[in-house]
Amino acid sequence: MRIGEIAALVGVTSRTVRHYHHIGLLPEPRRRANGYRVYTLRDAVLLSRIRRLTELGLALDEVRDVLADDAGRELAEVLGELDADLARQEHEIQQRRRVLAALLDGPLTPDAPLSPALGELLKAAPATSSPTAAKDREHLMLLEGVIGGDAVYAALRPLADNPAVLPMYERLDELEGAAADDPRIAPLAEELVAAVPDEVLAAIPERGPTATGFEQALLDDYSPAQAAVVRRVMEGLTGRLGGRAS
User: Fold this and answer.
1) Are 12 and 56 within one domain?
2) Which residue has the higher pLDDT, 81 or 63?
3) What is the domain range of residue 221?
4) pTM
5) DSSP labels, the chain
């Protein structure tokens, strides 16, 4: 078969076939003396499989991993894993639709959080003019859907009712412009770590927003002394999580 023929047989374009060759996803077949590629039925089977995997929503890098992992495995096992992944995606889509339904039932404002549970948490928080408290609110909205959803927001409710929290925000405000070795940093960080309920740590999923890029972006949003406090809080909470695991 020529490239146009195998492309028509599988239902893709010749350009797609060439792209798969270029990225190494589909091995180049042998060529005739005139330079034309000669495709076999085995090539067609592989190309058809690539097409099916991409139609299931897998990225090309994921397709490459699946094909590599599939060597020597039963087809039923491979399809079972794909079905489980589709079920996970379906669950996430249903959750997003429930959130949208709740939003459509209530008043919509430009700065409204997507999650009704987060909205209730923010309503419960006492009014304050603290800049760092405002940042905390923005960060919660930014991380919505990543840090565990309703369970985390419910676990955070005691913090909203804790009268000791606002003074800690104000002390964090006072560190604006201070040096990164200010003596107020360590004790404030310790108090903030201690104020976080165990229920919050239990509700945070294992795969959370811990990527280095995110952490650095978060720290860059604060002044040096404030960032030092936030860094210590991250480390302290991580240590508490490790202690709970052991």
Assistant:
1) yes
2) 63
3) 116-245
4) 0.53
5) --HHHHHHHHT--HHHHHHHHHTTSSPPPPB-TTS-B---HHHHHHHHHHHHHHHTT--HHHHHHHHHHTTT--HHHHHHHHHHHHHHHHHHHHHHHHHHHHHHHS---TT--S-HHHHHHHHHSPP---HHHHHHHHHHHHTTTTS-THHHHHHHHHHHH-TTHHHHHHHHHHTTT--TT-TTHHHHHHHHHHHS-HHHHHHS-SS-S--HHHHHHHHTTS-HHHHHHHHHHHHHHHHHHHHHH-
Residues 96 and 123 in one domain: no
In whole angstroms, give the CA distance from residue 35 to residue 33.
5
Write the pLDDT tens digit of every residue in 23-77: 999 989 888 888 888 888 778 878 888 888 888 777 888 888 878 766 655 656 6
Residue 111 lies in a domain: no
Instruction: Evaluate whether residue 150 is within a structural domain.
Output: yes
Residue 15 pLDDT greater than 70, yes or no: yes
Q: What mean pLDDT is predicted for residues 232-241?
A: 87
